[in-house]
Specification:
The chain is α/β, with parallel strands linked by helices. It has a single domain (5-116), classed as Rossmann fold. The protein is built from five helices and five strands, in the order E-H-E-H-E-H-E-H-E-H. It has helices at 13-25, 36-42, 62-69, 84-92, 105-116; strands at 5-9, 29-33, 48-54, 75-79, 97-100. It is globular, with a radius of gyration of 13 Å. The mean pLDDT is 90.
């Protein structure tokens, strides 16, 4: 993959640390943010192959963040919610994957690797 930068936005420090470790181990360059607002203040998504965004962030939600970003960069939504309404909203927002916590490392890495092969499947 020529571009291996993956931006992760989650307000749980342990999730950020774990996802960064999984992504690094898989050959990606994770850049982490603890809220939508800190990401928006330092935003440089032009070089990212995708974003991994928690839906239920403190402050602006992951879905609200997606609306402000448009579809410039593929998004993987993650959440601890088991609500069908949340799942539907995430899919309608246009994500390449929707993952419920806890999820396997493989379920995160597979859609990112598919991006490197030029396929952008919708969840």
């Amino acid at each position: 993959m020529s571009n291996n930068k993956v931006i992760v936005i989650d307000d749980d420090p342990s999730v950020l640390k774990g996802l960064a470790r999984v992504l690094k181990t898989s050959g990606f360059d994770p850049v982490v943010f603890d809220c939508a607002e800190s990401f928006e203040n330092e935003r440089d998504i032009g070089e990212a192959c995708c974003l991994v965004i928690d839906i239920h962030l403190k402050g602006k939600s992951g879905l609200e963040l997606r609306q402000t970003l448009g579809e410039e960069v593929p998004v993987i939504f993650i959440t601890a919610s088991d609500s069908d309404a949340v799942s539907v909203a995430a899919r309608e927002a246009g994500c390449i994957a929707f993952l419920r916590k806890p999820f396997s490392a493989r379920s995160l890495i597979d859609p990112i690797q598919r991006l490197s092969m030029g396929t952008h499947p919708r969840a």
